[in-house]
Amino acid sequence: MSVITTNEAVEAVSNILQEAGASGVKIDDAADYEHLKPGKYGEIVDLKTIPHRTSGAEITAYYPETVFIPEILPTIKQRVNGLSQFGLDPSPATVTSKAVADESWATAWQKYYHPVRVTRYLTVTPSWENYQPVQTDEHVIRLDPGMAFGTGTHPTTVLSLTELEMVVRGGESMYDVGTGSGVLSIAAKYLGVDQIKAFDLDDVAVRSAKTNLALNPIASDVVAEPNNLLNGIHQPVDLVVANILAEIIVPLVPQAWENLQPGGHFLTSGIIADKLATVVAAQEKQGFIIDNVLQMKDWRGVIAHKPTEDE
């Protein structure tokens, strides 16, 4: 099933399609190509050779043959058109469907995903690859990216993994806020964190996290639950990790402060460059001490801690 819509409605439409039972989504967004110019990356990128949309976006969702598409199509059309009530422009909101052979989507795309050494100690590999570590201190995180959460190699995730490597000493307790694929919880277990609870507002994300946790036996004791940030959580831990948008980090700041032990670390990522000052200001106003700011492409990560009585 494909939906033609605007750039601003991409995430909302994707969510509608997933809630209707999609096994995965593909996004072709014209905005992703706006900054790609011939020669900017040597001679690698030339838009004339890359088929792409020049306006708006197309979200394609894939459903198993057990789903009767004509039954869910009217509901999806109604929900997509209804996004205007929430201040989003879904136009033209064109919804179409067609049958495809299993090979066209279920397995063919897997050839593009391979093991990636994302940090010094952590390698992310898709679940179907029989990858073996090449060094004794290399930890292999196995993920199933089939639920549209990617393979764990996005810059924001790499920044979060690097932050964990820099801070974790072993034996800590941790909250993983907005867990998504669960990759940060899995990495934290490999690095020595003892007790972890992972939260996400999206039930799809919680199910995806549980699937990936099961692929990594070291993370079998991680608890993944639906929750809105740290609402209702009042048990201090040593680490709070959040790879989410800056706009969501800001309201998380006082919750992280309440739920951190003195000396505990607040690790954040998902911060686009022009939002860094806003996030840092909110943390410093709360009382956090900023220890480090990490950078990868246009993204930033912040390592902060709650001061002890001696600081």
Automatic annotation (TrEMBL):
Main location as per UniProt: cytoplasm
EC number, as in UniProt: 2.1.1.-
Domain of life: Bacteria
InterPro entries to which the protein is assigned, alphabetical: Ribosomal_L11_MeTrfase_PrmA, Ribosomal_PrmA_MeTrfase, SAM-dependent_MTases_sf
Catalytic activity: L-lysyl-[protein] + 3 S-adenosyl-L-methionine = N(6),N(6),N(6)-trimethyl-L-lysyl-[protein] + 3 S-adenosyl-L-homocysteine + 3 H(+)
CDD domains per record: AdoMet_MTases
Similarity field: Belongs to the methyltransferase superfamily. PrmA family.
Short name of one Pfam family: PrmA
Name the UniProt record assigns to this protein: Ribosomal protein L11 methyltransferase
Native species: Levilactobacillus acidifarinae DSM 19394 = JCM 15949
Gene that specifies this protein: prmA
NCBIfam families per UniProt: prmA
Functional note: Methylates ribosomal protein L11.
